[in-house]
Design a protein that fits this description.
Length: about 475
């Protein structure tokens, strides 16, 4: 298993945050269990030795004269000679008798020296031959409490040390196995994270460089898989946004080129006709001014969109008559709709209604909505405009019998750059700006449409009540 290790990488953080802690805990547990096992083993040996040598406690109560004889008698009948050696020591520290049958000379007896003060004591020793032994001494007293000597058991630690060493080896092997398993499983887990994260990083770089078609293969149904799915979704959205942006640039370029071409063509025509055909000059200047107004409107729309994107699209609120504003906006399209053979139907409302807001911004919305209705309605169609007063708001409806909007595009027509019909002039940002303006007026803009039947745009704005200013 190969895993690239980097400074401050996931693997390094895992090593310091997880593996190092696990290694310390495992080592501590292994040492603790080894010490505990050695301690329990020693306690077991001491308990067994005391049990084996217990019959020598019968020497208590002996006299100075009978002490040695009794010791020899007990030693002679001692039945655990093959398990442990017991020595009987007099009050001068000399061995009286040993269960081995010999009064062997002894090495130092620190346990006996301590037993003089403590009554009983145990020591671990190393003989002159290098053998590790354990010895324990218990003091013997006569009936008056005077010390007669002690009995001392001695046992080899060879078997116990082998058992302790074996246990320690088992603990070391077990610890290494646990750490090895943790290492393998940890690296496997890290690899399962690092590889998709690296894929995400690589794809993100490609996306950042403009390759919006790159996708991450999703192989896991977990948080990593969810992240990959999100990155893929982001790439799809960016790809769509990029396509919309390109369409927008193409559309705006066309929208700019058309009036510029007209301005240039009619400007040259008018220039050549000066002094020869004043009527043609006048007509050319009218076209130039008209197309200049069209360019000015497009530029203003682009500026409004820029302000909307940066949060600088502001409104100057004051009460105004929305009925008069709507009638004025409709009249701007009366001549155009007549030329295109479209019936523009608008009945001025009997009651004038005031709203609080920016009159120029609301007029901009009306013009955009009416312009769309006229633009997408063919000759012989109708555009119907109504103003309806409701309890606390006014509703303006602009309905047409135009081409309509496909159902799959209806939810997106208010998005920036989006154009459901790319064959008709327009920048694709008018409705996005209009929707933002209406929102800033605490109103709503709805678009309903059926493809091939027509479209209805509804604007809802709160009615202005004079009491609102008084309350403020």
């Amino acid at each position: 298993m190969q895993l690239e290790i980097k400074f401050k990488s996931i693997a390094v953080r895992w090593f310091f945050n997880i593996f190092l802690i696990v290694a310390i805990v495992v080592t501590f547990v292994a040492i603790a269990f080894s010490v505990l096992f050695a301690s329990i083993n020693n306690e077991r040996i001491i308990a067994l030795a005391n049990d084996y040598a217990y019959e020598f406690s019968a020497l208590s109560g002996s006299s100075t004269l009978t002490y040695e004889d009794n010791a020899i008698s007990i030693a002679g009948g001692f039945k655990y000679k093959d398990k442990i050696e017991v020595q009987v020591i007099d009050r001068f520290g000399e061995v009286v008798v040993s269960t081995t049958g010999f009064k062997t000379a002894t090495d130092s007896m620190p346990d006996y020296e301590r037993a003089k003060d403590e009554g009983t004591a145990v020591s671990r020793l190393t003989t002159s031959s290098g053998e590790r032994i354990m010895a324990g001494s218990t003091m013997i007293y006569d009936s008056n409490g005077n010390p007669l000597g002690a009995y001392r058991w001695i046992t080899s630690m060879r078997s116990a040390d082998r058992m302790t060493a074996f246990f320690i080896i088992v603990m070391i092997v077990s610890s290494l196995a646990i750490l090895g398993f943790c290492t393998y499983s940890g690296l496997f887990f890290i690899k399962s994270i690092v590889r998709p994260v690296r894929d995400v990083s690589n794809i993100a770089r490609k996306i950042a460089m403009g390759d919006f078609e790159s996708r991450i293969e999703i192989t896991k149904n977990d948080e990593i898989g969810e992240l990959c799915d999100t990155i893929n979704y982001m790439a799809a959205e960016l790809s769509q946004a990029e396509n919309l942006k390109n369409d927008f640039i193409s559309s705006v370029s066309h929208e700019l080129r058309t009036p510029l071409t007209a301005i240039r063509g009619w400007g040259e025509t008018a220039k050549m006709s000066i002094g020869t055909d004043e009527e043609l000059v006048k007509r050319g200047l009218d076209v130039v001014l008209s197309e200049a107004d069209r360019l000015s409107g497009l530029v203003e729309e682009l500026l409004d969109f820029s302000r909307m994107q940066t949060g600088r699209l502001t409104v100057v609120s004051q009460p105004f008559n929305i009925s008069s504003l709507l009638e004025e906006s409709v009249s701007m399209y009366a001549e155009l709709s007549k030329k295109q053979g479209i019936e523009l139907i608008f009945t001025p409302p009997a009651e004038e209604i005031e709203v609080m807001g920016d009159m120029n911004r609301i007029k901009q919305v009306f013009i955009n909505i009416i312009d769309n209705a006229v633009k997408y309605t063919e000759s012989g169609g109708q555009v119907l405009i109504n103003q309806i007063k409701e309890e606390a708001c006014v509703r303006i409806e602009v309905s047409d019998t135009g081409v309509g909007i496909p159902a799959q595009d209806l939810d997106r027509v208010k998005e920036k750059f989006y154009k459901a019909n790319k064959t008709v002039r327009g920048s694709g940002i008018g409705l996005a700006v209009a929707d933002e303006i209406i929102k800033q007026h605490k109103g709503l803009l709805f678009i309903e449409s059926t493809e091939g039947v027509g479209t209805k745009a509804t604007i809802v704005l709160p009615i202005f009540e004079p009491e609102e200013i008084e309350n403020e």
